[in-house]
Structures are given as structure tokens and as C-alpha cells.
């Protein structure tokens, strides 16, 4: 991934935070038929990514394969009109701000029913937490859960390396960065609040 120095994010807690907050990822791997992409949610557990796929998915047959897992955080179009310097020099152009983490590792296929059930319980408990009456795996009949478990396999990816790129206007002076935050908050489109919050957190870390 092309990453200019000022956009590189190497703090592991920040990268793990992005993975936690944006768990739906793209898994890329090379097969005999060429590049393959799959999309699935992950849980970060003890330095590894845990997920699951249907038995018919090609990933279920790629034990040991090298994979790249892409996690995308908030992103958004940035108008040059938000830069105070644009009003002075007119030498600014549009861009796109975003945050991503690229996880490199090798895929391990996991067959154990107990491992899979633990993962499903972890996933559902987390994502049902905001529901008025959260659904639990135990709410379904045992025979239905057993049948469902037989239809999937676990995916474990031990993280070998993480690349982080947080393109958040670091190449601009502070007043331009603050102008972008204000512009995102004013526009308030899809994902704008999250991107503004991430940029504001970055400014706080510099204080």
C-alpha cells in the first residue's frame, strides 16, 4: 500500500481500535483461478482474527494460504472550500480522507464445533448488545444450532503484519485540518461524523 510518511499509522492500539470498530473486512487471496475476494466480519482475539464462512466458500479449502485482510474505517470527500488557505491562495484541490488497516497473515481453517460456537456467541453478543431484547445463540433450538454449525467452518488468521494508513489531512496546517473537521460536521453526510471524530481525536493527540 502506498503510504506517505505523514499518513502512516503504526500505533498498534489505534490499528486494533479500527479493527474493533469496523469489523466487516475484505479478505483477499490468490488461488489457482486468480485473485479472490470475500467479505466477512471478524473478531480480534489474542492477536488473531477469528471469523467463519460457509463450507462452500473457497476459503474453506485454502488452509495455509497467505491472505490480506482489509479493514476500512470512516472515509469522505474533502472540499477545498473548507481550507482557510484556499481563500488566500486558491491553490487547493479536492481530496478524499480515510483510514484503513491492512492485515497480513496466513489462513487456518478450524473445524471444531466448540470453537465455532464460542465465536458465534461472541459475535452475536457484541452486535446484539444495543437491541432492546438481545438475541442469544441459546435462544435457538439446539438441533438448529448444531445443523448451522455443520454448515460452516472457522477461519483463524494469525496476524503477521499490519499496515495502517490514516489519511487525515496531516499534510495541511492546523487551521486547514480544523476547517476540514468543521466542514465534515456541517455536511453531516454518511460517515462524516465518524471521520470528523477521528480527525478531532488526532488533533487531541497532538496537544
Automatic annotation (TrEMBL):
Alphabetized Pfam families for the sequence: FMN_bind_2
InterPro entries listed in its UniProt record: Split_barrel_FMN-bd (IPR012349), TR_PAI2-type (IPR007396)
Protein name: FMN-binding negative transcriptional regulator
Organism: Rhodanobacter humi
Amino acid at each position: 500500500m502506498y503510504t506517505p510518511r505523514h499518513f502512516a499509522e503504526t500505533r498498534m492500539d489505534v490499528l486494533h481500535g479500527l479493527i474493533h470498530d469496523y469489523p466487516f473486512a475484505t479478505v483477499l487471496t490468490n488461488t489457482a483461478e486468480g485473485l479472490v475476494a470475500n467479505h466477512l466480519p471478524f473478531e480480534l482475539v489474542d492477536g488473531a482474527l477469528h471469523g467463519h464462512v460457509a463450507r462452500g466458500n473457497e476459503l474453506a479449502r485454502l488452509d495455509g494460504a497467505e491472505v490480506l485482510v482489509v479493514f476500512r474505517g470512516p472515509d469522505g470527500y474533502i472540499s477545498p472550500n473548507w481550507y482557510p488557505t484556499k481563500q488566500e491562495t486558491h491553490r487547493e484541490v479536492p481530496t478524499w480522507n480515510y483510514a484503513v488497516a491492512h492485515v497480513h497473515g496466513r489462513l487456518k481453517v478450524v473445524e471444531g464445533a466448540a470453537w465455532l460456537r464460542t465465536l458465534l456467541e461472541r459475535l452475536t453478543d457484541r452486535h446484539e448488545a444495543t437491541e432492546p431484547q438481545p438475541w442469544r445463540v441459546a435462544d435457538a433450538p439446539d438441533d438448529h444450532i448444531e445443523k448451522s454449525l455443520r454448515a460452516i467452518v472457522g477461519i483463524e488468521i494469525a496476524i503477521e503484519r499490519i499496515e495502517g494508513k490514516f489519511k487525515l489531512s496531516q499534510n495541511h496546517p492546523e487551521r486547514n485540518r480544523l476547517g476540514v473537521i468543521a466542514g465534515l460536521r456541517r455536511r453531516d453526510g454518511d460517515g462524516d461524523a465518524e471521520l470528523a471524530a477521528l480527525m478531532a481525536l488526532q488533533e487531541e493527540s497532538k496537544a
